[in-house]
Design a protein that fits this description.
about 220 residues; mainly alpha
């Protein structure tokens, strides 16, 4: 398998809905330690709205699938979650505009754009205890994989492992942005909910690519 085509990405959104349905309580629990406790519900709502829109009006290409998923977050999910996840996916989708499929190099360039958008909109960097702490190492892993010429399923497996490691590292961090920075201990001892969602995103993407490769 060399690329992930439009049909793959539409099916990936369906997978995300199922994964976030299963993980909604866990993500809300992470968020409840320092915030409103609604992160899992917000993520699920965003992906469900994207799923409905993609079914109603089929997208023309890969970039449109991802961009419209981001637009569903921006338009339907309130608060920081809607802004940062919407920005991530809109920017990544714009980077893939017109593409019939995405290989490792394309995925890296698209998600790098998404990472840059998240940092700009969320005003967060690595070590601030946010989704950036899982997203940044995942994008770095994709860069290394692209430079090595790895096939997309291998690259995504590496990215998923990097996102997992980044998420786990947030437990020991103190929040420097967002509501958690005002809490006692600044969120130390708890997984960041946004980082956990990024981890789920890459794990689901990796599993979907591996399934496609094996078929």
């Amino acid at each position: 398998m060399s690329t992930l085509d439009r049909e793959f990405w539409i099916g990936f959104v369906d997978r995300l809905v199922a994964v976030f349905e299963e993980n909604e309580p866990r993500l809300c629990g992470y968020d409840g330690a320092t915030g409103d406790g609604d992160h899992g519900t917000s993520m699920l709502h965003g992906f469900r709205e994207a799923q409905k829109g993609l079914r109603a009006t089929p997208p023309a290409d890969v970039g449109e699938v991802i961009r419209r998923t981001g637009e569903a977050f921006l338009e339907n999910v309130g608060g920081v979650t809607g802004i940062v996840f919407g920005s991530l996916l809109i920017s990544a989708g714009e980077g893939g505009a017109g593409l019939p499929g995405t290989d490792t190099a394309a995925l890296y360039s698209m998600l790098l754009l998404g990472l840059e958008a998240v940092k700009k909109r969320g005003k967060a960097v690595e070590g601030d205890k946010t989704m950036v702490d899982a997203l940044s190492p995942a994008v770095a892993a994709l860069r290394t994989a692209a430079e090595a010429g790895d096939p997309v399923e291998t690259a995504l497996a590496k990215a998923a492992r990097a996102a997992q490691t980044g998420m786990e590292a947030t437990v020991a961090m103190e929040a420097k942005v967002g509501r958690a920075r005002y809490q006692s201990g600044k969120g130390s001892g708890h997984v960041d909910a946004g980082a956990a969602s990024i981890c789920l995103f890459f794990q689901t993407l990796s599993q979907a690519a591996a399934t496609l490769s094996a078929s």
